[in-house]
Design brief:
about 130 residues, alpha+beta, 2 strands
Length: about 130
């Protein structure tokens, strides 16, 4: 279960505000910057973590990867063969069809969508939108 912290971020926010990440070097290569937000400057990959609440999840490394999976809609509801949501059935992560359209460009590509669509499914259920929940 996620927990929230309202405590100040323990590290200085001055370096991230200047686009610096001496601990991990985020945005220090052209490849890193290419994967970041080009409109965010001075470093497309670094920004201060300054507004609470903050959330964290444990992520465990694994040896699995998939580029294809169960089709779903924007609420993470599983779709049947006709493209109709199946009531009460949600999917996220490695079981969901990749947002990369069947490509697997790099390890970890399912982590962001897993967190995003897990949140989307939870919000959909929490607001009572699933008629058979």
């Amino acid at each position: 279960m996620p927990t929230a912290s309202r405590a100040p971020w323990p590290r200085s926010t001055h370096r991230p505000a200047r686009g610096e990440d001496p601990a991990f070097g985020k945005g220090s290569t052209a490849y890193n910057r290419y994967l970041g937000d080009p409109e965010h400057q001075p470093n497309a990959c670094v920004a201060p973590v300054a507004k609470a609440p903050f959330y964290a999840v444990k992520v465990y490394p694994g040896d699995i990867g998939t580029a294809l999976g169960v089709r779903a809609d924007g609420h993470a509801r599983v779709l049947d063969a006709r493209g109709t949501p199946i009531a009460g059935l949600y999917v996220a992560g490695n079981d969901m069809h990749s947002v990369m359209g069947g490509e697997y460009p790099a390890p970890g590509i399912t982590l962001g969508p897993a967190l995003t669509f897990g949140w989307a499914a939870g919000m959909h259920l929490a607001h009572g939108h699933d008629e058979h929940a």
